[in-house]
Amino acid sequence: MTYRVAVVGATGAVGREMLATLEELNFPIKEIYAIASRKSLGVEVSYGERTLKCEDIEQFDFSKVDIVLMSAGGDVSKAWSEKIGALGPIVIDNSSAWRMDPDVPLIVPEVNPEAVWEARKKNIIANPNCSTIQMVVALKPLHDAARIKRVVVSTYQATAGAGKAGMDELWEQTKGVFVNKDVPASKFTKDIAFNVIPHIDVFMEDGQTKEEWKMKVETKKILDESIEVFATCVRVPVFVGHSESLNVEFETALDENVARELLRDAPGITVIDKRENGGYVTPKECVGEFTTFVSRIRNDPSVPNGLAFWCVSDNLRKGAALNAVQIAQLLDERGVLTPENA
Fold this sequence. Notes:
Dihydrodipicolinate Reductase, domain 2; 2 domains; six-stranded parallel beta sheet; 8 helices; alpha/beta; 30% helix; Rossmann fold
């Protein structure tokens, strides 16, 4: 079976990555459309060896497609996703707009693929936050083995998580240091070059940021409502690739050697864990890769049944575009899209 697919937000970093990932994974496409705002009408984007011209979201007939990959931001998704879903296609949305809607499944295919059957409630599926995705991919096999009680996670998130503007600000400020040119912070709250900023998204009343809140509530929805998560999310001067340091407390003991083998056997994970110089993966090395890398696995004796590890992943790929395309693959594999509507 082949599908008619539209990518909304096709000119953005994630939208372009979605088009590249669809082609790279050889997703069965009958027709492919690049959609953007009116100001991007006619802008050319690549799909394999083809060049697509962007069409205006206001004028496009969404009833002629089966799947819509939405990566145009929360406001656009709130305005359009339900309207598109009412016309028949399933929308896979990369924003935070629908993640906590009880009628919208929040899916990481390696973790909760069965949730794909809930898609027809609103014809919307939510793609989780990038930092949540890589974390729950790594937590899933460990949770199945020993039941997780609590996770304390510190993230080291790349500027790509703030879009092209974030990466541009890092680049311009870095250049400015060497030519004695001041480039004021615009996208971030403080200078990002040669700095780290413990602040992503807005502050909430209890002192946590919304990014930290997302990691907690999304993990509960995807993996297990009983898991407690405490996150500190930090922006670092890296272009692409999110890193996380995790301390996990289990209900029963889980030896680090057993955990290492469980992670090695789990889908979507590559373990590189040598106790020597360079025997771990850094964000620079994960760029362009589909997998989530896990390193520095060790027992944490400071809590009962504790385990610690390091986790990195390309936030534009597994953290966004790849996960969305894998959800589309799930729709195909599980038969959620039938011949009548595909």
